[in-house]
From TrEMBL:
UniProt main location, coarse: secreted
Name the record gives this protein: Sugar lactone lactonase YvrE
Entry keyword set: Secreted, Signal
Residues that span the membrane, as ranges: none
The keyword Transmembrane helix belongs to this UniProt entry's keyword annotation: no
Biological source species: Methylobacterium aerolatum
Pfam families, A to Z: MRJP
PANTHER family according to UniProt: PROTEIN YELLOW-LIKE PROTEIN (PTHR10009:SF18), PROTEIN YELLOW-RELATED (PTHR10009)
Location in or out of the cell: Secreted
Length: 369
């Protein structure tokens, strides 16, 4: 039988009777994991692929002020994108005109490449004024089309982590000052929701490969609101702290600026008892794929909240933001973030090169853009 995690055991003890927690896994074999991209020196924490086959990743600098933040994979190599200038920021430079720390990327419904910049370098730091931003890049011209400043919703410890589209709205998670931000692309207006709500707050320290993680100053790591997805019909928003569990709320409660957080909180539901997670993806049928950073596996969460193991492999160390391509393949970046100094108590990097992005055929369609 599958081993029950401590979090699931706790929920059972508390009498949780919602969606089934964990099913006996029917996992794909390790031979189904196909390495598609590798690097002998770079650490990435995500992947996205355009419909015409261009592949991009955000990269995590391992040395302060040195290295790229966003790159395109060309012939197996990484090229700074959209140019060297946007990747050349260093301490003291203008943080509004270059990537301070590109944290999450995705191809948007418009076919452009979108990038969220958290605006600071070290874990737990305060974002630089104007540093936190959402950047829209035109893939046809390889130039920045527009920058959406996020300063209006930034708090002292804000860590704008990831984002998803829903029509002309963008939802962003704040993993540092727990909450959700909503950006209206037409007006540029921003507002925060579920600010400090228990569903956005990490309830336990972050773990990876069964070990409690610490930041580069030796402090226990708590990553608050992090992973998020929107249902294919745009009506349901799924979100969680990095350590789970996964909650849901109707998107109308996020979009309505007149609603109070007290009212919103009444509509939060527990969707699935996920565990420590690096990244997620969602398909056109509403199945969510979530990594398990302790079990080195990818879970498949059905629309009713039941979970099963999609694939488990010792190479899947800290799978981060995944992507589903047009041919039904799940791109799985084994980011090894738990082995970097930022999550390893400041110790020397334990990343084992080459770092690898795998592809697994899942026969699912991506959410239509």
């Amino acid at each position: 039988m599958a081993r029950t995690s401590p979090l699931i055991a706790l929920l059972l003890a508390l009498g949780f009777t919602g969606p089934a927690l964990a099913q006996e896994p029917t996992a794909a074999g390790s031979e189904a994991l196909k390495p598609v991209l590798q690097s002998d020196s770079l650490v990435f924490n995500g992947v996205t692929r355009s419909k015409d086959g261009r592949v991009f990743s955000p990269f995590q600098r391992q040395t302060k002020d040195t290295g790229i933040e966003l790159g395109e994979w060309k012939d197996g190599k990484v090229v700074a994108y959209p140019d060297e200038a946007w990747n050349g920021w260093k301490t003291g430079d203008d943080p509004t005109k270059a990537f301070v720390t590109a944290n999450a990327i995705r191809i948007g419904p418009d076919g452009d490449l979108w990038v969220v910049d958290k605006g600071f370098q070290g874990m737990g730091e305060t974002p630089l004024p104007g540093g936190a931003k959402l950047v829209q890049i035109d893939l046809a011209t390889n130039t920045v089309r527009k920058v959406y400043p996020l300063q209006a919703i930034i708090r002292e410890k804000s860590f704008i982590d990831d984002f998803r589209f829903n029509g002309r709205k963008v939802y962003l998670t704040d993993a540092g000052s727990p909450g959700i931000a909503v950006l209206d692309l037409d007006s540029g207006q921003l507002h925060r929701v579920l600010d400090g709500h228990w569903s956005t707050v990490a309830q336990r320290p972050l773990t990876g490969q069964g070990r409690v993680l610490r930041d580069d100053k030796g402090r226990l790591l708590a990553i608050h609101a992090d992973q998020l997805e929107v249902s294919p019909d745009g009506k349901t928003f799924y979100y969680q702290a990095c350590t789970g569990p996964l909650y849901s709320i109707e998107t109308r409660w996020l979009d309505d600026e007149t609603a109070s957080d007290d009212e919103r909180g009444k509509h939060v539901k527990l969707h699935a008892a996920t565990v420590s997670t690096g990244g997620t993806a969602i398909d056109a049928a509403g199945n969510i794929y979530a990594s398990d950073t302790d079990g080195l596996r990818v879970l498949k969460i059905a629309p009713d909240g039941t979970m099963s193991t999609l694939v488990q492999d010792p190479r899947l160390v800290w799978v981060d933001a995944m992507w589903i391509d047009e041919s039904g393949g799940l791109w799985i970046p084994a980011a090894q973030m738990n082995r970097t100094p930022a999550m390893n108590g400041g110790e020397s990097s334990a990343v084992k090169f080459p770092t690898t992005i795998f592809r697994l055929e899942i026969g699912a369609k991506p959410v239509p853009n």
